[in-house]
Amino acid sequence: MSALPTKLETLAIHGGMPVRTKLLPYGRQSLDDADVQAVVEVLKSDWLTTGPKVGEFEERFAAWVGARHAVSFSSGTAALHGAAFAAGLGPGDEAITTPLTFCATANCILYQGATPVFADVSADTLNLDPSEVARTLSARTSSRVKAIIAVDYAGHPAALDELGELAKAHDALLIEDACHALGAEYRGKRVGGIADMTVFSFHPVKHLTTGEGGMVATDDARVAEALRRFRNHGISSEARERQEAGQWFYEMVLLGFNYRLTDIACALGLSQLDRLATNLARRREIAAHYKSAFRNLPSVVTPTVRDGVDPAWHLYPIRLRLEKLAAGRTEIFRALRAENIGVNVHYIPVHRHPYYRERFPSQGSYPVAEDAYERLISLPMFHGMTDVDVEDVIRAVSKVVSSYAK
Ligand SMILES: Cc1ncc(COP(=O)(O)O)c(C=O)c1O
Fold this sequence. Notes:
Layout: H1 33-43, H2 52-65, E1 69-73, H3 76-86, E2 94-97, H4 104-111, E3 115-118, H5 130-138, E4 145-151, H6 160-169, E5 173-177, E6 185-186, E7 189-190, E8 197-201, E9 214-218, H7 221-230, H8 239-245, H9 263-273, H10 276-294, E10 300-301, E11 309-310, E12 316-320, H11 329-338, H12 354-359, H13 367-375, E13 376-379, H14 387-403
Parallel strand pairs: 2-3, 2-4, 4-5, 5-8
Antiparallel strand pairs: 1-9, 6-7, 6-11, 8-9, 10-12, 12-13
Helix pairs in contact: 1-9, 2-9, 3-4, 3-7, 10-14
The structure holds pyridoxal-5'-phosphate (PLP).
Pyridoxal-5'-phosphate (PLP) binds near residues 76, 105, 177 and 179.
């Protein structure tokens, strides 16, 4: 890796030369000719949606993550909504989740008319803390909790065994929001075959993209059937089955949505799946470079990896030791942006958003998540990053934090 800059180098925010001339985003897709070809073939075929590519993508995806079934959705958010429905959440029910996530994780509970209950995260991984979940469960007077929705923050699997046991003991389901964690491993298994339902997103910044898209993986055939109906208006058969059987008759058996993923998107997903292992390996390589480059920067805390876990590194969130800096997170963030490093912050805790504050004015406090939020900065992390990109990030972080060191 390149030599660290001297403390005297003028920051771009103060008129110095930026580390890069063009902004490096925090995440972006990588597409190749095979992806384009796969999409073009579908565009020339008979089925743009509800066709054969959907089942093919679902089967290959399920096999890849190690689940019996996978049901595709038009986005990760729609997939979460499907999972909340299949868990039986409805008015009067509750689901426990983490505040340190994208709002879609908690919103899916509200879509079903149920109530989200937040529990704080563990200080090392920033994932849902099982002891906080246990405390929250024991404080409930009636057993209205039907689901625990854990997030694999940044791609590090949540404490799935402990949370699974808590869910089982309370007759609830464990839904794993693995939108950051496709390909992550937990105690020797890929995420997807561990929780009752595991939800993935195929947004362009993720490990595999279909433009927009999502998936729910499960071993339970009845849950998979409920998910299939829910994403198809609540109708009991699929259009292609009817066409092939020469039948028009169908029945709507529950209130569902049109959350279908198109054949165009599934063809892209199938093509991208071929490169998933390579993409993951690159992300792991970048994470290792960052970790080793920042080990001597006293104001930077790199993400912890627990024993028995291999994260998928959707994000690379560092935490600032603000005590050692003469500037706050906002100034450091702005200084990095001025160096043309597309840093980001994941996340504003969900309960702090105006909608949640107004709807649930008496939410509790979540000190670990809130303290983390004040210090977090996500560095660029995507599998298409070149070695020069990685070095630019390292140089810019070192330049900025050294310049503000106390
Ligand atoms: C943790 C988490 N859950 C859910 C989602 C929603 O996924 P999508 O954008 O595919 O709807 C995201 C999106 O980034 C996410 O980060």
